Amino acid sequence: MANRGPSYGLSREVQEKIEQKYDADLENKLVDWIILQCAEDIEHPPPGRAHFQKWLMDGTVLCKLINSLYPPGQEPIPKISESKMAFKQMEQISQFLKAAEIYGVRTTDIFQTVDLWEGKDMAAVQRTLMALGSVAVTKDDGCYRGEPSWFHRKAQQNRRGFSEEQLRQGQNVIGLQMGSNKGASQAGMTGDFAGRADHFIQEASNMELSCRNSR
After folding, report:
1. Which of 67, 152, 172, 175 could be bridged to 75 by S-S, CB 3.0 to 4.6 A?
2. Which positions fall inside the Calponin-homology (CH) domain (predicted)?
3. Of 16, 80, 81, which is closest to residue 49 (Cα–Cα)?
4. 52 is a domain residue
């Protein structure tokens, strides 16, 4: 474990609040998943935040974890070192974080290297691993090992596509609405109707541009 001096005053108070966010039950769940997912002879760590940190801090287990989420031959980290050198360990943590983000974990769910290596925020480490599990379950590509209920599936974005004909029909409706008011001055139109008409026109233009760009 990295050596850190004691915290004093406000910094100690902040650190205590961070440590209170750590979930011991979640730790057990994550350890079980990682061991099952890696399918290797990985030693089960003793319970506790400090042991969980020590288990992960050299980056070896994390790199094996992200590699296990890819088909054989497509692993993002081909060379994993069990070096005791600090800079090598931090380098491997960084490799894992980069690979996790490429895999689909949001930047906002990625912990900082010092959060793990110095034990500054192990709750953030748990959050990243939970997000990684959620992405793995959602992908459903056959690489995830474990119960699907262990992680939440991410919501899939529901995109609507519009054909050229649908866009033209929408523009015709807008044209008829505008034509029915021909002869009426802009001042005579209610602000509400004018605003809605502008909104419909803008929406139709946006949909048409979106369809053209998606080709």
Report:
1. 67
2. 24-136
3. 16
4. yes
